[in-house]
Amino acid sequence: KKITCEDCIENGLREVTLRVTSSNATKLRFKREDGSPLFLFGQGVPPKCAYTGKVAELNGWLIDQGCDESLLCTKWIQNHYRWIVWKLAAMERRFPMQLGGRYLNYGHVLSQLKSRYERELVAARRPALRKMLNKDVAAGIPIILCVSQVLRFRSKKPDGGVAEELRLELTDGWYSIPALVDSVLAIYVEKGTIKIGSKIAVCNAQLAGSDDGVDPLDDSYDSSKRNCPLLLRITANSTRPAKWHARLGYVPPKSLENHAGTILVKSLDDIHPNGGSIPAIDLVVCKAYHRMYREELINENKQVYSTNHLTEAEESSRKIEFDSKDQRAREKLADSAQKECLKELDEDAPPEWKEMVESNSPEEHYDKLCDVNRKIVDDWSHKRAVLLQSMVSKSVEHSMADHLTTERASIPYVKVLVKALFRNGTKRGTERRQVAAELTAWRVTDDHLAVLREGNVIRMKSLNVKSDGKGLLQLSSKADTPMELLAPQPSRYQLRQSGYEERSALSFIRLNLLSKQKHLNLIEREVDIVGVIMKIEREGENSSIAYLTDESGLVISLTRNHTAHCADPFHIGSVEAVLPAVAEVSNVQISSFDANNQCVRCAWGLATSKSRLSSNDVRRNELQCWHGTSEGEE
Length: 634
What we know:
Elements: H1 5-10, H2 15-18, E1 28-31, E2 37-40, E3 51-52, H3 55-64, H4 74-94, H5 96-99, H6 106-122, H7 128-133, E4 143-156, E5 162-171, E6 176-181, H8 183-191, E7 199-202, E8 206-209, E9 230-234, E10 239-241, E11 249-250, E12 278-288, E13 292-298, E14 304-310, H9 312-347, H10 351-358, H11 362-367, H12 371-403, E15 407-420, E16 436-442, H13 446-451, E17 457-467, E18 473-477, E19 483-485, H14 492-497, H15 508-515, H16 522-525, E20 526-538, E21 543-549, E22 555-561, H17 575-578, E23 581-594, E24 599-610, H18 617-626, H19 630-633
Parallel strand pairs: 6-9, 16-18, 22-24
Antiparallel strand pairs: 1-2, 1-3, 4-5, 4-7, 4-11, 5-6, 7-10, 8-9, 12-15, 12-17, 13-14, 13-15, 15-16, 17-18, 17-19, 20-21, 20-23, 21-22, 23-24
């Protein structure tokens, strides 16, 4: 049952308790006689009875209790009085039947104020946000905070309009910090999903503003003002709602042992393309593609003017071609530079060496030299060779830098299709609607490829995310992105629940039905096939079509674009000698159903390749036997 104001009043809450907020809590005054909340100073006419709650009175009481006066300051008392009063008032409102009219009183405020003095000022145990603002701990550490205010700042635009900036004031119960939110969190605030009193778990946050740390007790620091020197930048993907009873402050390490030391995102549905990086997620590799290379051609202005995506074979060919061209240019420049450098060096040669070179027989001249002159000639010959090599090398590099019109950079990457690992405790039916995402791992190494194998479950941190505009989530990692196999690896049952299916060729009947569906997504359109190639036709100079069939009699046309000089685009050898032939092709794209020719039209894409999977061995053998029979020949 939702608690109403009437319920609170009936259970003993005073009307002023219902009006206490984090922004006016410092104005609350208590009745001196019994310590009950009396009124908010500055709001209406003060009552005639005696009241208490002023900073001077609080300061005097603490000193009377033996507190060191030199450790106390007005802002410290005001700050903690604010958060204690707001907390006690909120607890009374949350549990009116148990605490109504008894929890928010002057005695509790004084007791907790003394307790905070002992902990923070005497024991020097700084609260979480004070450490963060002092920049003594990283802002990205997982922390639970409470929303104390929703701040809106308006300013005029150059065109005369009004711009509004939305911020949240977050508190750990001891101090507060203003937070800059992204567009996704702003929507949650406007919808009321995030509101005053909400507790949120935050990680991967960043401090913005001053380069130096500040202290929340500094005169320049006010978390509710626009010019606050330090702000916390938080994003949706690194923010999660926390339970109402969650303890504020840094999350204990023990609570994060099974969550990669940070917030562990449990479903791809929980990821927002505009919500910043993903702190951590466990992913099932459902489909892995071959390593590719992104080739960038760079002009003399250091601008990328052309980008191409190459297979490993194409990358090797292009690298050899580019290196050969570069080598030829260097050799040509070296020949020219050597002549100039020799001429320059010989001008500084010692007379003994010059006489030897200019003689009719340098060998005989050298033999007749005395030991001293022979050493001079030997030393110069060695020095000349070293200097010549250095001068030619520098001249070539300088000339290449001046005359090189195109530089080439090549970045290896691999794409994999992933789904989030299904865990026990996930809502029933979630596994049936597990969404997929495409992960691009940039600058991959052989170690990365060993981890990114189909059927593996990997834990990744700090993943970048965006949308491709067609509903498919795009994840990306860099060379230094943490990536490791989950230990222990989940059971096969858990993998199936996560949406993983071992690769297997689709039947031609199923392909036929899929091609007639109008609303297939990119993932559903990509299939593996095993069939018998009946014939191959050239379609223009840069395209070929292979026609495949099986026992069903249904036909698939597979189109591949290629260079004009490519004689074997489907890698089967001599067409006349081999056909008909059984072929296994992975990652074929279904285009449509050709009603005129009564066949399924498919395309050979960038990720398509000939393959040989053990899961298709039986099917491959069946077709091998079938196409040799009279039925298959027909």
